[in-house]
Amino acid sequence: MDLGETFSWEGRRIAWGRAGSGPAVVFCHGTPWSSWLWRPFAEALSTDFTVHLWDMPGYGRSSKDPGHPVDFGVQADAFTALLAHWGLDRPHVVAHDYGGAVSLRAHLVHEVPYASLLLADVVAIPPSGSPFFRLVKRHPDVLAQVPPYIHEALVRAYIGSAGHRELREDDLASLVAPWLGEEGQPAFYRQIAAYDERYLAENEALLGRIDIPVSVLWGTEDTWIPVGTGERLAGGIRGAAFTRIAGAGHLIQLDAPVALATALRSWLLRVSD
């Protein structure tokens, strides 16, 4: 499944792709990731669903213009516009990491209707952010100027720390690649500098408004965002289901692909009936 389509929005180029047939399912990635993480799961589900992948502006194969903000608010605006462009009516939304805050804001603030929402190890409510993340946020301009080989080593170590298991070299290379080069290196630090926890506080204050089926999945070994945060998130949403995924860290897609795929399909088949 390739991101062979583009959507022009506010001067940005958003890469996206669609496959399959059946009820619409939209996947939202986080940071410093891209839709690449969701691709195998989308492909597997395309036998029963119309699956949609997209890279947020500033990520993956979408444009990375240094003049374009990439904060939670902008990404929620972009997601709202993209859903309208697709003409989807109440899609099922699946989100990871930063995609949780983006999908929640689109639903709660922009009132975009969803059929259901599945949140996997998401950045959605405060607090969040690893020690390295907080360091970068304090010194984004300095770190953006480090030599490329040092930058690559930093990004590789940072991304590698998200998994509970050691990442395969080809997986690690795929996750690091968008953040290299003259365009990728400054974009990496720019998206961290844009992080604003006020959006997460707004999300938490509005959780009581959610009246759609919600499932929250969390890796028991997530060291970036502890499982207790996931429990608090689920506890704030009326009727939300909470499931621990054993042996998975923050990169649940790579740590526990079978458990995640099983939970995804089971959930979507149940809420699509």
Automatic annotation (TrEMBL):
Residue stretches making up the AB hydrolase-1 domain: 25-262
UniProt GO MF annotations: catalytic activity
Top-rank lineage group of the source organism: Bacteria
Protein name: Pimeloyl-ACP methyl ester carboxylesterase
InterPro entries for this protein: AB_hydrolase_1 (IPR000073), AB_hydrolase_fold (IPR029058), AB_hydrolase_sf (IPR050266)
